[in-house]
Predict the structure.
Amino acid sequence: MKDASPQALVEIETDGDIGLIRLSKPPVNALGVALRGAVHAAHQTLQDDPAIRAIVLYGAGRFFSAGADIKDFGKADVEPTLPQVLKALNNSPKPVVAALHGVAFGGALELALACHLRVGVPGLRVGLPEVKLGLLPGAGGAQRLPRLTGLSRAIDIICSGRDVAAEEALEAGILDLIIDAPARDAGIDAARQVLSGTLTALQTDSLQVAEDDASVTAARQRLAAKRPALAAPLKALEAVCAATLPIDEGLARERGLFMGLMAGEERAGLVHAFFAERATGRIPEQDVPPRDIAQLAVIGGGTMGVGIATTLLIGGYEVRLIEAQSDRVGAAQEAVTANLAGALKRGKLSEAGHAAASTRFTCSDALDTVAEADLVIEAIFEDMGAKTALFGRLDAICKPGAILATNTSYLDVNEIAAATARPEDVIGLHFFSPAHIMRLVEVVVADATAPEVVTTAFALARKLGKVPVRAGVCDGFIGNRILTQYRRAADYLLLDGADFAEIDAALEAFGFAMGPFAVSDLAGLDIAKATRDRKAATRPASERYSRVADLICDQGWYGRKTGQGYYLYDNGKATGPNPGAMEIVKAERQALGLRPQRFTPDDIVARCLTAMIAEATRVIEEGIALRPVDIDAVELFGYGFPRHRGGPMLQADLIGPETLIQRIETYAKDDPQFWQVPALLRRMQRDKRSFAEMNSGPKTTEKGQAS
Ligand code: 3H9
């Protein structure tokens, strides 16, 4: 017998005396109000059917379920709530079996934990990833998981939010058995074993949890030290500790903690980041089929070229790396080999994957060998003359239909494309260093770039596990353009009275892994100086220019690699601010006649963030980025913006246009050239619009039309 509901969210079926409920809500069976209501009703129907002796829940599609519907977060709760549905399952007089395949995350695992028996199929991953969304399991997971695994393992799984493979889940007691069969058959098999008495079905809520003070204390110390800025992991620990209470008291305690986090900014930031990662794929060209690519070439055996070659090899492609200087070919080859060994060690590659990647890789100085490549990525030094000369040669060598990409981080991709007779095949693919680790790729679409070249770039980036973001052509594209203004705000704060260590500390307390001056030391002060020197001729005379970094460079202090920069280093570890650099700052303030002002950590964050937001607003106005959320993705996945803050545009919405305008106008009293209110911000204030409202749909901008 089959009975599909009108919306077909669940399908009820019977197999003899077993009733089956199939969850069917593409793409991921998210347990929003409609699906959980349908499960509740289906369960009740089977409870009321005297011919049914056991019930099996399983999922249609790739997964059992991805958990609660994240899109519902922040909205009012609608009954039946997930805790209510799960309580009814746990109290069910008939045994209920959860048959899990693919993934069972968050609320989905909580649903399974409330059943009386759990069977998994090979390849299943389970987990309670709520802390990664600034939450804790809010439907009994923190009470029922420890009832099966004990406190210590539950703390590890819940407070880290990590995935657990089927084998570990079995060993930990989360699964009762693994059956190598489709989930439906596995569920029926398990239910039959329960009915015949060979398996025991248990009411999870009836179990008790032993205290474990040592594990709790150790976890509290570890979590407080690791991510002190985050509230969710410690609150999750509190919720797990409540599992030693009677079940209803524990559930109430857990729910209270969950609702507290749901209302917080950490949850808003992390959920925004979750969707930002996925939103960037919505581009005007999205319906155009990509070209097939199998063989790739990378030109340039420096750090970028080596990193890009590595990520392509890890992604399964055949890669030729070309280093024009024959005496550097060996070093480039070794660097890729070392990166692949690192990927193997980190588990990014299996033994077999590592062996295969090594056979798919060649490195030489022979540019002619790229003739058959489907896509060539240029990663030579930032010099327009060198790049246009190379693209001219590639145009002559490469087969028709090959895509020619540049990894430039600033230069004009239109000018590079014009050096070829096939500008429609030219695109920017701006990877971030180290390219085999960093997830952002700016896909820079030039005036003539063909739509299928854009979709090919997006498909490639997704296959590599990257976050591709569509950008238009301008100096610095999205990320470096915003970075420049953020750095300038920090440099001006330094001149005006905040010490560089104070500025770094304030931004690190906000959530950046490193402040801007520590980052400069890491990147090498000489590198940034070379960029400033390149831009010196075009810098407006009215622009305020801080010479501090240049003066530090003049001492031969280039940062970490020379043992001193803004900070002093011992074996690569910072030991404290460099007194010499502090003297340079003081002398420069005196030379300019500046009386040091006092800035609180909040002032520092406000200025740096406002500078970022103002530039980001211009990037949107000019159509360089499609949407505000693309800017957040750039900052989160390429520039270390704290994930729990969601990105500068989410922050801008939290601050509001009125306050942002007031801030800029106040700062402008001292420096009207740098601090200017973008016209879009004024329109937003007038029309009471938020950046979030500009995020919907694939958008067509002036520069980004799908043809
Ligand atoms: C929770 O359960 C709270 C409870 O404790 C308490 C309740 C009271 N909801 O990632 P993909 C969308 S918290 C809504 O590209 P994949 C996703 O946005 C939840 N939508 O596919 C995308 O949409 P679009 C705990 C969701 O195969 C589409 O589905 N659960 C959800 O690479 C495909 O996703 C988690 O944190 C959701 N829960 O990966 C699990 N999940 O196409 C989060 C996905 O419009 N999800 N979408 O851009 C994942 O980890 C991955 O999505 C998953 C699939 C591994 C499932």
